[in-house]
Amino acid sequence: MSRARVCLALFSASVLAGQTVEVTKVLAKPLSRSVRLTGELLPYQSVDLHARVTGFVEAVLVDRGSIVDQGQTLVTLSAPEMEAQIAEAQAKARAADSQLAEAKAKLRAAEATYAHLKEAAETPGAIAGNELVVAEENVAAATGAVASAGAAREAAQASVEALKRLDEYLKVQAPFSGVITERLAHPGALAGPGSGALLRLEQVTRLRLATAVPEAYAGRIALGARVSFRVAAHPERAFAGVVARSARSVDPKTRTMAVELDVANRDGALAPGMYPEVNWPVQGGKSSLIVPATSIVTTTERVFVIRVVNGRAEWVDVRRGAREGDQVEVYGPLSEGDIILLRGSDEIRDGAPIKKGSA
Hints:
The longest helix has 41 residues, at 80-120. This protein folds into 4 domains: 34-44 and 204-283, Efflux pump adaptor protein, beta barrel domain (Elongation Factor Tu (Ef-tu), domain 3, Beta Barrel); 49-78 and 170-199, CATH 2.40.50.100; 81-168; 287-356, conserved putative lor/sdh protein from methanococcus maripaludis s2 fold (Beta Barrel). The strands form 6 sheets. The chain has a 6-stranded antiparallel barrel. A 4-stranded antiparallel beta sheet has the order 3-16-21-20, with no helix packed on it. It has a 4-stranded antiparallel beta sheet with strand order 8-7-5-10, with no helix packed on it. A hairpin with a 2-residue loop joins β20 (319-324) and β21 (327-331). α2 (80-120) packs antiparallel against α3. The chain is α+β, with helices and mostly antiparallel strands. Helices cover 28% and strands 38% of the residues.
């Protein structure tokens, strides 16, 4: 160092030493901050709609972007062979009704004959002894025939009802309210349980925001906490979601835990597939040492604050932590309540005498 520079440094130190400097105290408090995480917006519910029965697509009543209500008919199918099956089943049901009516008529005749013979049997010698036995067995047989015909009728009716329910499946309806995001079928196409999807329906008035929380912050996930985020499509607007679900398991590959937020989207400003930037809150579990940002001195060789000890300056090396406003978390050999310079400067040399101002 040249003699002129040495003289200048000594002059600066002596001038500062003769002035009163502002000081402040090192604080200790939990530091609240947030980290930026990338997330993905997903529909709250999403389903590919398939045909439940085999048939030809007759009409597609919606298209991509259509807003639909729960229970609304979206696609109609036609299956002529099913109509034939229903007609056949109905004919069998009518035949079963006739057989049941005939069996009941025979039962009534058998019961009447048995009653007549039983009355006649009270007069000795009026009828042969085995005639009453035969009449009683005829009543039992007729009763069994009625029961069998009744069961056959119930089976035939059940077959008709089952086919009618299948006929209702020719109408594909929305299981929940939402928006059609994909149309995958057109009239004339053959559809069935084993074929591809006809439509894709998503619920977008309510969304899921999925994000991966680093392991270091996973222990502080609070269900019900409100978390803010932004999307590139609306940079001027802040959105928020509520922490609703946690995987409760850390992925061993990424060392993160999957977390989902519920997001209201009544105005439709957000869309599934967007990648929001999430301001994930991190609450400090223990107290941190906090100093004003102006107290930290950074040179090419070191980062330090200037502590006042017995009227003299002491350079104390520190490392920066998180920042909260105009305060900075620091790590180093400091203690809560230490007096440091409010505005640090490397012109105040280590060991220089100084005068304290207000703390």
